[in-house]
Predict the structure.
Amino acid sequence: MNGKNWMVNKENQIIFNFCIIRILMAKFNTYIEHPEIGSWRDLCVNEGELCRYTKGKEFVSIGRVARYIGYVKSGTLKYIAYDDSGAEHIVGLEFAGEFVADFPFSLRGEPSRVAIVADSVCEIYQYSVRELTERLKSDAGLSELVTKSTELLFSQTYDRYIALYCQSPEKRYYNLIANHPDLFELFSLKDIASFLNVTPTYLSRIRKKLGK
């Protein structure tokens, strides 16, 4: 390989790496990138009520039907599930500019399987699930939006499920940090480790190994 070809390949590799980084830097919750989600944001912001949640306050309680869907104006939340021993597991993280809800289960009147808890002081535009379910009875467009949004959330969840089995903890950590370089400023190491399904000690080793 001559020097010129090497330089071309090197430039292509740099471009490729840049494109990968741009992809990874997309929203952590990929559903938010789809235009349909803008309709939920508009509904919550224009017709909902802006409420303040202190750290530790539940937006959704486990075992109860969620009363609201919401658009997060500021702050962070975490989704918590519990195993048979009562130990908690972080199964989702939510950021400002994203949609928060026990979706679509609350629309079906089903008790939530997770608790959604403010991990910092949050401002959330919330809209009543009861009002939403009433509108669904006569609004075909809204029903279609629910169907599409459910598909988007399923796709995201399925991708994460596959990643849990097919990617190493190091790879999943790298992708997580690529999405949110400031993640450790927003959530505790313990919660991030739980979301990655590793122990805090193992996560610390990964961070040390990768120098992050």
